[in-house]
Design goal:
Helix content is 51%, strand content 12%. It has 167 residues and is mostly helical. The chain has one domain: Rossmann fold (3-Layer(aba) Sandwich), CATH 3.40.50.720.
């Protein structure tokens, strides 16, 4: 929460002071799939990203009158330092092996194999900001697009089946 939410929020909080005066500018909230959905073993990371998603949604509404664009970038797997050798893992507990063991292996084994190119991501963010209507969210990489789409379908199905429960 400290780095992924508080750190990002502190930086975001200072940007509008600089951007409001010229009535223009852009804020890119760089995140990952953890803003839209979560996986076993990523609860702390996803909690921070879910919170950051809320900040981005609110900030977009608050900054629009000042001509400041806000974009929430939801990255899939990109070759960054996220899974560097110094990444700290929680201690392994046998009781959770079947629940988070695959997630742990995935995070460890993906180092250096991620398909996403950060330079192409930067170009896509620039293109989104230059569009006449900047989207609120931009999923980058096929894995991000597929995961968000699949998760959205599940949420819509749940809404359809539970609709009559509260009426």
């Amino acid at each position: 929460m400290e780095a992924n939410f508080s750190g990002a929020s502190n930086v975001i909080r200072t940007a509008p002071r600089t951007l409001r005066t010229p009535l223009s500018g852009a804020i890119a909230n760089i995140s990952g799939l953890g803003e839209q959905l979560s996986f076993a073993g990523f609860s702390a990371y996803s909690a921070a990203k879910f919170a950051l998603e809320g900040v981005g949604e609110t900030l977009a509404q608050e900054m629009k009158p000042f001509g400041i664009k806000v974009l929430i970038v939801e990255l899939g797997q990109f070759r960054t330092n996220l899974v560097r050798p110094s990444m700290r893992h929680m201690c392994q507990m046998e009781v959770y092996h079947d629940v988070v063991g695959n997630t742990r292996r995935f995070a460890h084994d993906m180092r250096g194999t991620q398909p996403g190119d950060p330079l192409k991501a930067a170009a896509a963010v620039e293109t989104a900001f230059q569009a006449s209507e900047t989207p609120l969210r931009l999923q980058l990489n096929a894995d991000a697009i597929d995961a968000v789409r699949d998760h959205s379908i599940i949420v819509l199905r749940e809404l359809a089946t539970k609709q009559g429960l509260t009426q």
